[in-house]
Design a protein that fits this description.
There is one protein chain. By secondary structure, this protein is an alpha/beta fold. The chain has twelve helices and nine strands. The protein has a nine-stranded mixed β-sheet. Helix 3 packs parallel to helix 4, helix 4 crosses helix 6 and helix 7 runs parallel beside helix 10. Bound molecules: iron/sulfur cluster.
Length: 340
C-alpha cells in the first residue's frame, strides 16, 4: 500500500483541467525512438531495441505544434523506453505550453525509482505515467521483463508518482505466464493501489511473441474467462473504468465486452487517433490492416463493416476457429466507461 494516495481520474480532471468525463478523447502519440533498457520476452520490437536513434527535436516540436492546432488535448510520448530520451522534460514542457491539457508517457518504470527524476517530470508538465506491470508477483513480472527487481521497482515508481502528484496507471500484457492473474491484478491495482486506469493488452503475435510462441502464447478462449472474472470483481468493487481498457481483442471472443475494447474497428474515436513513428504520422486505423487479417467467415458477421479482424500472427499459430461470426450485437456487460 502506498503512503501517498494515487491520483484518480477525478483528481486529474480537477488538478490538470482535463476535459470532464463524457468528453471525446482527442489524442496523439509520438514514438520517440526504439532504445530500451528492459528485454521483455514478448516485445514486438525486439530486433530494434539496440538502436538508440531518437527523433530530432525539431520534428517533435513540429508535430506538437500541428497536433495542438488540430485541437488534440492529450499527447503521449512512447518508445522504446521513453525515459531514456534525453530531451523528455524539454518536449513535455513545450507540449504543455502549446496547450495540451494532458502530457502522458508510456514506460517500463525502471528509471522512476529515482524520486528526483519523477519530480522533474512533474515540473515539466507530465501528468500521467502508464507503467508496464505484467504480473501480481515478482517471479512473473521480473521474468517477463527480464529485469530482476522490476516488480518491486514498479511499486517504488508508483509511490514516487503518487508523491509527486502525477497520475499513475498500468498496462498489463496478457501472455501464458500471467493470464490467470488478471482477476488478482484488478484487485491489486484497483483496490490495493487505488489506481483507476489500467489496460489489459492481448499481446500481438510478432517479434518476441513469435519467437517464444511455444511458451508464451495463450488462446483467447483460455484467457477470456479470467478477464470476465476480473471485470466482475471490478464491478462488485465499484472500480471505475476510465476508457476502453481491452487492447487487441475482437468482439467475437467476448461479445458482451465490446464496449470496453479499443483498436478493433474503424468506427470508434480511437481509430482516428494519430501515431507518429519516425518521420511518418498515420491514423491508427491505417496501421492495423498490416497486422490484422480478415477471415473468410468474417463476411457474415454483424461487425464485418467495422472490424479489422484478428491479429494475423495469432491466426498463423492458432488458426481461426475461435472467431465465430456474430449474428447480432450482444448486450454490453453493464459497465460504462467514463470517456467514450
Ligand atoms: S468474426 Fe471477424 S468480423 Fe466478426 S468480430 Fe470476429 S474477427 Fe471481427
Amino acid at each position: 500500500m502506498s503512503r501517498y494516495p494515487a491520483l484518480t481520474i477525478f483528481d486529474a480532471v480537477k488538478k490538470f483541467g482535463w476535459p470532464e468525463p463524457g468528453s471525446p478523447i482527442i489524442s496523439r502519440e509520438l514514438l520517440l525512438g526504439d532504445a530500451c533498457n528492459a528485454r521483455c520476452v514478448f516485445c514486438c520490437a525486439k530486433d530494434l531495441q539496440k538502436k538508440a536513434v531518437w527523433l530530432p527535436e525539431s520534428l517533435i516540436r513540429e508535430r506538437i505544434d500541428k497536433w495542438a492546432s488540430e485541437g488534440a488535448w492529450l499527447v503521449t510520448f512512447s518508445g522504446g523506453e521513453v525515459t531514456l530520451y534525453p530531451g523528455l522534460e524539454k518536449i513535455s514542457s513545450y507540449a504543455k505550453k502549446r496547450g495540451f491539457k494532458s502530457v502522458q508517457i508510456l514506460t517500463n518504470g525502471l528509471k522512476l525509482r529515482d524520486y528526483d527524476y519523477v519530480r522533474r517530470l512533474a515540473v515539466a508538465g507530465i501528468d500521467e505515467v502508464k507503467i508496464s506491470l505484467h504480473g501480481t508477483d515478482a517471479a512473473t513480472h521480473d521474468w517477463l521483463m527480464q529485469v530482476p527487481g522490476a516488480f518491486d521497482n514498479a511499486f517504488i515508481a508508483t509511490e514516487n508518482l503518487n508523491r509527486a502528484g502525477i497520475k499513475a496507471s498500468f498496462n498489463f500484457a496478457v501472455t501464458s505466464r500471467n493470464y490467470m492473474q488478471m482477476p488478482l491484478f484488478a484487485r491489486m491495482a484497483g483496490s490495493r493501489l487505488g489506481v483507476t486506469g489500467f489496460c489489459f493488452m492481448f499481446s500481438f503475435y510478432s517479434g518476441g511473441m513469435l519467437e517464444e510462441a511455444g511458451g508464451l502464447g495463450v488462446k483467447y478462449s483460455a484467457a477470456v474467462p479470467y478477464l470476465r472474472l476480473a471485470l466482475r470483481y471490478m464491478k462488485v468493487k465499484n472500480i471505475v473504468i476510465e476508457s476502453k481498457m481491452l487492447s487487441n481483442f475482437v468482439p467475437c471472443v467476448a461479445p458482451e465486452l465490446t464496449n470496453l475494447m479499443s483498436d478493433w474497428g474503424f468506427s470508434g474515436p480511437e481509430a482516428v487517433s494519430q501515431v507518429g513513428i519516425g518521420g511518418k504520422v498515420r491514423e491508427v486505423k491505417e496501421s492495423y490492416p498490416e497486422r490484422k487479417t480478415r477471415l473468410p467467415s468474417c463476411a457474415g458477421c454483424v461487425y464485418a463493416d467495422r472490424c479489422y479482424g484478428p491479429d494475423s500472427g495469432y491466426v498463423k499459430i492458432y488458426g481461426g476457429s475461435e472467431f465465430i461470426p456474430q449474428d447480432k450485437e450482444e448486450k454490453n456487460f453493464p459497465y460504462k466507461t467514463l470517456y467514450p
